[in-house]
Request: fold
Amino acid sequence: TVVVANEQTMGRGRLQRTFLTPAGASLALSVVLKPAREHLPSLMMLSALAVARAIEKTTGLRAAIKWPNDVLVRDRKVSGVLVESELQGEQVAFAIVGIGLNVNLRVADYPEIADIATSLAAELGRPVSRADVLLSVLDELEAYYTALRRGESIYLEWHDRLALLGRQVRVTMGQEVEEGVAEDVSPDG
Reply:
């Protein structure tokens, strides 16, 4: 099941942050899946990877992944992915993959994100077809999900797109702050 919104007024990302989705400017979609429990840790990976590949296929822009759930173009956030699931006993009742993707968003109109975000149109200097990007995201998501269900690993392809490996990072968890070099990410994300 796929639900696509033309506009979101209460879009949210990780840690209850808001995600801007003005009418006609971005993609906001949710995909309902019913994965095996052992595939849950890979859903974030395959979703971010699907978005990155769809961006490249539809625009030619190189996309990277910022762990754990952002897709970047030229080191600026263009997309966020959120995965939520519910268990019934030992079985996964469902998993919802939420994707927000700045397609034709005029980031300059939003000073609070102008320094950290971008859109496909801003990077290309022209409007981009949201329908083409949507179809590509769904095609890529289906291909990766099917591969995962066949037992294929997407870890190496995902790992090769990670933007922060080898770089200085700062992680804030409530009042606690950790700083260091991002060396690696385990196969379960």
Summary: The helical segments are 40-59, 120-124, 130-149, 155-160.
